[in-house]
Amino acid sequence: MAFRQALQLAACGLAGGSAAVLFSAVAVGKPRAGGDAETRAAEPPGWAVGVRPPPGVWDPNWDRREPVSLVNVRKRNVESGEEELASRLDHCKAKATRHIFLIRHSQYHVDGSLEKDRTLTPLGREQAELTGLRLASLGLKFDKIIHSSMTRATETTDIISKHLPGVCRVSTDLLREGAPIEPDPPVTHWKPEAVYYEDGARIEAAFRNYIHRADARQEEDSYEIFICHANVIRYIVCRALQFPPEGWLRLSLNNGSITHLVIRPNGRVALRTLGDTGFMPPNKITRS
């Protein structure tokens, strides 16, 4: 009986998996003619396949790490049967909780002609110091810092790292700023469809690569810091909570803010804080 139930679960996971979750997150539509133009259903770009899950339905296999989707039930040993399957499923179960801290870079010189010239302002450096002090005050054993390779994110990381000695840091291009998906409601000044197509695939790749439940081999809870950009963080939050990703632009994040996501072993996701800057004096808070 247990084996038949597992097979039914596998069928749901395999048949509904790609089709159910592979998303919404990348349904990019054609630019609208104007504010009063008739809206139409968004069309996904070529690298995005599948359909969005029904409204209000949580997909437990959103990160493709449900144990039943990691085990080839067709290769079961006929003699050991259910016992072997149960053992294999248990071996694939996550045991630890991941705490993910998404930090937006501090204020920077927006008028720099080149990306390397968009360095932190004096106020931005103060903000990074305050964020670093806040993270250190939490008393957590942070495992690593992963940061965008863009100048403003790298400089923010340099300052925050001083308050977290011994925490290794890794730079990645995946977390660079970009336009993840055409926002809804639309904005007339936003970027053309080609940019959503290019940036969206990369930012989605960052989500898939970094946002998921813990590996089954991880024994203890982990605390990880990601220092990147507002658009990337807003998109990640929408995707992780299985909210319509087109709503990312409705969220607002201050410079140096802390967003805290929790991913449980069973794949459930909770948002502890969004864009927290309560640790900064009011005259130090900016959103540029």
Supply the helix-strand structural class.
alpha/beta
**Strand line-up of the largest beta sheet:** 3-2-4-1-5-6
Number of strands: 6
What summary fits the major beta sheet? 6 strands, mixed
Number of helices: 7
**Can you write the helix and strand succession as a string?**
HHHEHEHEHEHEE
List keywords for this structure.
288 residues, 6-stranded mixed β-sheet, 7 helices, 13% strand, disordered N terminus
Explain what you see.
- The longest helix has 20 residues.
- β5 and β6 form a beta hairpin.
- The protein is α/β, with parallel strands linked by helices and 288 residues long.
- It contains 7 helices and 6 strands, in the order αααβαβαβαβαββ.
- Strands 3-2-4-1-5-6 form a 6-stranded mixed beta sheet, with helices on both faces.
- 33% of the residues are buried.
- The chain is globular, with a radius of gyration of 21 Å.
- α4 packs across α5.
- Its EC number is 3.1.3.16.
- Belongs to the phosphoglycerate mutase family. BPG-dependent PGAM subfamily.
- This is Serine/threonine-protein phosphatase PGAM5, mitochondrial.
- Pfam families: His_Phos_1 (PF00300).
- Keywords: Hydrolase, Necrosis.
How do the strands and helices of this protein lay out in sequence?
Blueprint: H1 2-21, H2 67-70, H3 81-91, E1 98-104, H4 122-137, E2 144-148, H5 151-162, E3 168-172, H6 193-210, E4 222-228, H7 230-240, E5 258-263, E6 269-276
Parallel strand pairs: 1-4, 2-3, 2-4
Antiparallel strand pairs: 1-5, 5-6
